[in-house]
Amino acid sequence: MRLLLIGAPGAGKGTQADRIAAHFGVVHISSGDLLRKHVADGTAIGRAAREYMDRGELVPNTLVLDMLRKPVVAAANAGGYVLDGFPRTVEQAEAAYGVAKELGVAVQLAILLDVKREELISRLLARGETSGRSDDNAETIERRQQVYEEQTAPLLEYYRQRERLIIVNGDRPVDEVTWSVVVQVQRAAKQLTE
Ligand code: AMP
Known about the structure:
Layout: E1 2-6, H1 13-24, E2 27-30, H2 31-41, H3 44-55, H4 61-77, E3 81-84, H5 90-103, E4 109-114, H6 117-131, H7 138-152, H8 154-161, E5 165-169, H9 174-193
Parallel strand pairs: 1-3, 1-4, 2-3, 4-5
This protein binds adenosine monophosphate (AMP).
Protein backbone atom coordinates (compact mmCIF):
# COMPACT_ATOMS: atom_id res chain seq x y z
CA MET A 1 0.00 0.00 0.00
CA ARG A 2 1.68 3.21 -1.20
CA LEU A 3 -0.37 6.33 -0.46
CA LEU A 4 0.09 10.05 -0.64
CA LEU A 5 -1.81 12.70 1.33
CA ILE A 6 -2.32 16.10 -0.26
CA GLY A 7 -3.83 19.07 1.53
CA ALA A 8 -3.24 22.72 2.33
CA PRO A 9 -1.25 23.52 5.48
CA GLY A 10 -3.61 22.83 8.40
CA ALA A 11 -5.68 20.21 6.54
CA GLY A 12 -4.64 17.51 9.00
CA LYS A 13 -2.14 15.62 6.84
CA GLY A 14 0.19 14.73 9.72
CA THR A 15 -2.60 13.55 12.03
CA GLN A 16 -4.38 11.54 9.36
CA ALA A 17 -1.18 10.09 7.87
CA ASP A 18 -0.26 8.69 11.31
CA ARG A 19 -3.64 7.05 11.75
CA ILE A 20 -3.91 5.72 8.19
CA ALA A 21 -0.36 4.32 8.31
CA ALA A 22 -1.17 2.56 11.60
CA HIS A 23 -4.39 1.15 10.13
CA PHE A 24 -2.65 -0.36 7.11
CA GLY A 25 0.54 -1.27 9.00
CA VAL A 26 2.80 0.88 6.82
CA VAL A 27 5.30 3.66 7.52
CA HIS A 28 4.32 7.34 7.77
CA ILE A 29 6.90 9.56 6.05
CA SER A 30 6.54 13.32 6.46
CA SER A 31 8.86 15.55 4.42
CA GLY A 32 8.16 18.47 6.79
CA ASP A 33 9.01 16.41 9.91
CA LEU A 34 12.20 15.10 8.31
CA LEU A 35 13.21 18.63 7.31
CA ARG A 36 12.51 19.96 10.83
CA LYS A 37 14.69 17.18 12.25
CA HIS A 38 17.52 18.16 9.89
CA VAL A 39 17.15 21.80 11.00
CA ALA A 40 17.17 20.81 14.69
CA ASP A 41 20.22 18.58 14.16
CA GLY A 42 22.03 21.32 12.21
CA THR A 43 22.84 19.07 9.24
CA ALA A 44 23.86 20.43 5.82
CA ILE A 45 20.30 19.78 4.55
CA GLY A 46 18.86 21.55 7.60
CA ARG A 47 21.11 24.57 7.19
CA ALA A 48 20.18 24.87 3.51
CA ALA A 49 16.43 24.38 4.14
CA ARG A 50 15.87 26.56 7.17
CA GLU A 51 15.43 29.99 5.61
CA TYR A 52 12.97 28.69 3.01
CA MET A 53 10.89 27.03 5.71
CA ASP A 54 10.83 30.13 7.91
CA ARG A 55 9.53 32.15 4.95
CA GLY A 56 6.89 29.55 4.08
CA GLU A 57 8.54 28.87 0.71
CA LEU A 58 9.28 25.46 -0.74
CA VAL A 59 12.73 24.03 -0.18
CA PRO A 60 14.66 23.31 -3.44
CA ASN A 61 13.71 20.02 -5.12
CA THR A 62 17.11 18.35 -5.05
CA LEU A 63 17.37 18.69 -1.26
CA VAL A 64 13.96 17.09 -0.70
CA LEU A 65 14.43 14.36 -3.29
CA ASP A 66 17.84 13.39 -1.89
CA MET A 67 16.49 13.36 1.65
CA LEU A 68 13.50 11.13 0.81
CA ARG A 69 14.98 8.56 -1.57
CA LYS A 70 16.27 6.15 1.07
CA PRO A 71 13.35 6.22 3.54
CA VAL A 72 10.74 5.89 0.77
CA VAL A 73 12.43 2.92 -0.89
CA ALA A 74 13.01 1.24 2.50
CA ALA A 75 9.36 1.74 3.52
CA ALA A 76 8.04 0.51 0.17
CA ASN A 77 10.13 -2.64 0.48
CA ALA A 78 8.88 -3.16 4.03
CA GLY A 79 5.19 -3.12 3.04
CA GLY A 80 4.36 0.44 2.05
CA TYR A 81 4.13 4.06 3.06
CA VAL A 82 1.84 7.01 3.63
CA LEU A 83 3.69 10.04 2.33
CA ASP A 84 2.71 13.42 3.73
CA GLY A 85 4.02 16.68 2.28
CA PHE A 86 5.72 15.24 -0.78
CA PRO A 87 5.37 15.78 -3.69
CA ARG A 88 4.46 19.46 -3.34
CA THR A 89 4.69 20.33 -7.06
CA VAL A 90 4.06 18.60 -10.37
CA GLU A 91 7.78 18.88 -11.02
CA GLN A 92 8.56 16.92 -7.84
CA ALA A 93 5.92 14.31 -8.71
CA GLU A 94 7.44 13.79 -12.16
CA ALA A 95 11.01 13.65 -10.86
CA ALA A 96 10.07 11.14 -8.15
CA TYR A 97 7.94 9.04 -10.50
CA GLY A 98 10.87 8.56 -12.88
CA VAL A 99 12.95 6.99 -10.12
CA ALA A 100 10.15 5.24 -8.21
CA LYS A 101 8.61 3.52 -11.23
CA GLU A 102 11.88 1.75 -12.02
CA LEU A 103 12.07 0.48 -8.45
CA GLY A 104 8.39 -0.46 -8.24
CA VAL A 105 7.80 1.96 -5.35
CA ALA A 106 5.64 4.66 -7.03
CA VAL A 107 2.53 6.16 -5.38
CA GLN A 108 -0.65 4.13 -6.06
CA LEU A 109 -3.28 6.53 -4.70
CA ALA A 110 -3.30 10.22 -3.82
CA ILE A 111 -5.79 11.44 -1.20
CA LEU A 112 -6.88 15.06 -1.01
CA LEU A 113 -7.93 16.24 2.45
CA ASP A 114 -10.27 19.01 1.44
CA VAL A 115 -10.71 21.69 4.13
CA LYS A 116 -12.25 25.19 3.93
CA ARG A 117 -9.82 28.08 4.02
CA GLU A 118 -11.24 29.74 7.20
CA GLU A 119 -10.92 26.43 9.00
CA LEU A 120 -7.29 26.00 7.85
CA ILE A 121 -6.25 29.42 9.14
CA SER A 122 -7.94 29.01 12.51
CA ARG A 123 -6.42 25.54 13.01
CA LEU A 124 -2.91 26.82 12.20
CA LEU A 125 -3.19 29.87 14.45
CA ALA A 126 -4.35 27.59 17.28
CA ARG A 127 -1.52 25.13 16.55
CA GLY A 128 0.99 28.01 16.58
CA GLU A 129 0.27 28.62 20.26
CA THR A 130 1.74 25.24 21.21
CA SER A 131 3.62 23.78 18.23
CA GLY A 132 6.82 25.77 18.60
CA ARG A 133 6.98 25.81 14.79
CA SER A 134 8.66 28.93 13.44
CA ASP A 135 6.30 28.91 10.44
CA ASP A 136 3.00 28.85 12.40
CA ASN A 137 2.61 32.65 12.57
CA ALA A 138 0.00 34.79 10.78
CA GLU A 139 2.28 36.09 8.02
CA THR A 140 3.91 32.77 7.13
CA ILE A 141 0.58 30.93 7.39
CA GLU A 142 -0.80 33.25 4.71
CA ARG A 143 2.22 32.70 2.45
CA ARG A 144 2.01 28.91 2.89
CA GLN A 145 -1.64 28.95 1.79
CA GLN A 146 -0.65 30.93 -1.31
CA VAL A 147 2.21 28.54 -2.09
CA TYR A 148 -0.23 25.64 -1.78
CA GLU A 149 -2.73 27.24 -4.18
CA GLU A 150 -0.10 28.20 -6.74
CA GLN A 151 2.35 25.31 -6.62
CA THR A 152 0.70 22.29 -4.98
CA ALA A 153 -2.95 22.44 -6.08
CA PRO A 154 -2.00 21.65 -9.74
CA LEU A 155 -0.97 18.20 -8.45
CA LEU A 156 -4.66 17.36 -8.04
CA GLU A 157 -5.17 17.54 -11.77
CA TYR A 158 -2.01 15.47 -12.29
CA TYR A 159 -3.39 12.59 -10.17
CA ARG A 160 -6.97 13.04 -11.37
CA GLN A 161 -5.91 12.54 -14.98
CA ARG A 162 -4.14 9.35 -13.94
CA GLU A 163 -7.31 8.19 -12.12
CA ARG A 164 -5.47 7.98 -8.84
CA LEU A 165 -7.15 10.78 -6.90
CA ILE A 166 -9.44 10.27 -3.90
CA ILE A 167 -11.16 13.33 -2.40
CA VAL A 168 -12.17 13.35 1.26
CA ASN A 169 -13.95 16.12 3.13
CA GLY A 170 -11.47 16.98 5.88
CA ASP A 171 -13.71 19.46 7.71
CA ARG A 172 -15.26 16.71 9.83
CA PRO A 173 -14.13 15.21 13.17
CA VAL A 174 -10.77 13.38 13.06
CA ASP A 175 -12.20 9.83 13.39
CA GLU A 176 -14.74 10.37 10.64
CA VAL A 177 -12.06 11.62 8.26
CA THR A 178 -9.80 8.63 8.99
CA TRP A 179 -12.64 6.21 8.46
CA SER A 180 -13.66 7.85 5.22
CA VAL A 181 -10.09 7.64 3.89
CA VAL A 182 -9.75 3.98 4.89
CA VAL A 183 -13.03 3.00 3.22
CA GLN A 184 -12.25 4.85 0.01
CA VAL A 185 -8.69 3.52 -0.16
CA GLN A 186 -9.92 -0.05 0.30
CA ARG A 187 -12.46 0.40 -2.46
CA ALA A 188 -9.92 1.93 -4.85
CA ALA A 189 -7.18 -0.57 -3.97
CA LYS A 190 -9.48 -3.43 -4.96
CA GLN A 191 -9.84 -1.91 -8.40
CA LEU A 192 -6.08 -1.40 -8.69
CA THR A 193 -5.42 -5.11 -8.23
CA GLU A 194 -8.35 -6.38 -10.27
P1 AMP B 1 4.89 20.79 6.32
O1 AMP B 1 5.32 20.21 7.62
O2 AMP B 1 4.50 19.74 5.32
O3 AMP B 1 3.86 21.86 6.47
O4 AMP B 1 6.20 21.47 5.68
C1 AMP B 1 6.82 22.56 6.34
C2 AMP B 1 7.77 23.26 5.38
O5 AMP B 1 8.77 22.32 4.93
C3 AMP B 1 7.14 23.75 4.09
O6 AMP B 1 6.55 25.03 4.24
C4 AMP B 1 8.35 23.80 3.15
O7 AMP B 1 9.19 24.91 3.44
C5 AMP B 1 9.12 22.55 3.57
N1 AMP B 1 8.69 21.36 2.79
C6 AMP B 1 8.05 20.24 3.24
N2 AMP B 1 7.86 19.36 2.26
C7 AMP B 1 8.39 19.92 1.13
C8 AMP B 1 8.50 19.52 -0.22
N3 AMP B 1 8.00 18.34 -0.65
N4 AMP B 1 9.11 20.35 -1.09
C9 AMP B 1 9.62 21.53 -0.71
N5 AMP B 1 9.54 21.99 0.56
C10 AMP B 1 8.94 21.19 1.48
